[in-house]
Specification:
With about 220 residues, the protein is of the alpha/beta class. It has two domains: about 5-135, Response regulator (Rossmann fold, 3-Layer(aba) Sandwich); about 145-215, Winged helix-like DNA-binding domain superfamily/Winged helix DNA-binding domain (Arc Repressor Mutant, subunit A). The protein contains eleven helices and six strands. A six-stranded parallel beta sheet has the order 2-1-3-4-5-6, with helices on both faces. Helix 1 links the parallel strand 1 (about 5-10) and strand 2 (about 30-35). Helix 2 (about 40-50) runs parallel beside helix 3, helix 8 (about 160-170) crosses helix 10 and helix 9 packs across helix 10. It starts with 5 loop residues before the first strand and ends in a 5-residue tail after the last helix. It comes from Methylophaga muralis. This is Transcriptional activator protein ExaE. GO terms for molecular function: DNA binding. InterPro entries: CheY-like_superfamily, NreC/VraR/RcsB-like_REC, Sig_transdc_resp-reg_C-effctor, Sig_transdc_resp-reg_receiver, Tscrpt_reg_LuxR_C, WalR-like.
């Protein structure tokens, strides 16, 4: 008897990237049906319809974003298996994704076989975090100052965290609004909420926290 193949839901807002994922996964003998969508809202809808074995998802997307999508999927189905496939290799992103309910984390800079290996592993109930970013996670967990800031950033909602990261990198509210497909006033309100929650006054203060967390470099 043939083993059951793994059904996959791909979630990424770039069509070319999704096409590349499809080609990569189609080449694997253990992969079955592949469905792809371009944002989190559609991912929640398609998951309810298809109940795929694994959701392979980016974090930086318009709409509700990747972290909130993970939370909603886990609320829909506590057994949902999510593998994050992101450009971000900073430890705070990995921590946030795992806290939200992701089973694994792989960066887009990894070799093709790493993604395939990760999909297979998480489909079997295993946790998979790319080897190259594991040392960064250890660095994040142990220093007391970084751990303190990490606990503080946990106060932020998934969308506030997205705005925080982009603002800390020096993007203006208009640029953040365009990147996340949000209104300028919405982003301005998020920035106010973020500063209040983190007890800081300026964008420079946000950047300092982001440096400690490893989100941006000195």
């Amino acid at each position: 008897m043939n083993e059951k193949k793994i059904s996959v839901l791909l979630v990424d807002d770039h069509q070319v990237v999704r096409a590349g994922f499809r080609m990569l996964l189609d080449a694997q003998p253990f992969i079955g049906t592949i469905v792809d969508v371009d944002r989190g809202e559609l991912a929640c809808h398609e998951y309810d319809r298809k109940r795929p074995d694994v959701v392979v998802m980016d974090l930086s997307m318009p709409g509700i974003g990747g972290l909130e999508t993970i939370r909603r999927l886990k609320k829909q189905d506590p057994q949902a298996t999510v593998l994050v496939y992101s450009i971000h290799d900073e430890s705070i992103y990995v921590e946030r994704a795992i806290q939200a309910g992701a089973r694994g984390y792989v960066t887009k800079n990894s070799a093709a076989e790493v993604l395939a290996e990760a999909v297979l592993a998480v489909s079997q109930g295993k946790r998979y975090i790319e080897q190259d970013i594991l040392p960064n996670i250890d660095d994040f967990r142990h220093p007391s100052d970084t751990l303190h800031y990490g606990q503080v950033v946990e106060l932020l909602s998934p969308r506030e965290f997205d705005v925080f990261c982009l603002t800390a990198r020096g993007m203006t509210a208009h640029e953040v609004a365009a990147e996340l497909h949000l209104g300028y006033k919405t982003v301005a309100n998020y920035n106010t909420q973020i500063k209040n929650k983190l007890n800081v006054n300026t964008t420079a203060d946000l950047a300092n926290i982001a440096v400690v967390l490893g989100i941006i470099k000195h």
